[in-house]
Amino acid sequence: MTVPTSHVFALGAVLFAVGIAGFLGRRNLLVVFLSLELLFNAVIVTLAGAARHHANLEGSAFAVFVLFLAAVEAAVGLALLVALFRIRRSVDPDAMATLKG
Amino acid sequence: MANALFYALALTTLYGGANVVLRRDPLVGAIHLALALFSLTGIYVLLGFPLLAGLNLLLYAGAVLVFLLFVILLLEPRERTARIRAARARLGLLVAIVLAVEGVALAGTLDGGPGNPEFHETAAATGTLLFTTYLLPFEASGLLLVLAVVAVLVLGGRDPAPRATAAIRPPAEVPDPFQSVGFPEGRA
Questions:
Q1: Alpha-carbon distance A48 to nearest alpha carbon in chain B (angstroms)
Q2: B1-81 has which fold?
């Protein structure tokens, strides 16, 4: 495949932007989670493109670590979401403003 | 041929991502996330990262996505949808447009061509790197995964606090002392 690395980076950047739009723009914790997964994958695709550009494996190893972190984040985050939903009966992050002064 | 496949997969990835953000029901969003993840797996294969593609398929499309779907399906459709608030959506859109323009402009300044198009990662090479140079971070992430399992077990369990206070409080069915002496109720 002879796709230039800049196009891979552009895909990563646009995917990250789409994820940020969902992360900041939606007020539904479930959609915020789905957007977080998009952000992680944008980073991984950028790492893969850079690793191919320089023909070294460090990017690949780093991407594996990002995958680990994404799994940890999803598990703990969803457990927190379920625990919060039991108390608040809502997926709206603005409903969780108890700590606001 | 491979180039056309890359652009097609990039388009389906972005289509799936846009639908994740735009659909009201997170269940529909999760299905579109699956589309984006499968397309990205194809892109990893095309870029020459078979190990990454396999892990992505197993960890993301397998474990994380099924877990997300379980949680989404736990909630009623009425509870899991929330209206899109205009001010917040505008903020998200603004930041996203700025980031996208900056990112694409930065990517455009890189004119190195395809770099090393013949580069291919092998699971053995990446595994060797993970178990030699990056052994400490690798073990640390293993520890992190164990800690996450413990955290999820603690968070997922029912709150033990109400039971503890209930044990201190006297039981609800205290026998009426007057009944045992023989006074009928209401004569006190």
A1: 7
A2: Four Helix Bundle (Hemerythrin (Met), subunit A) (1.20.120)
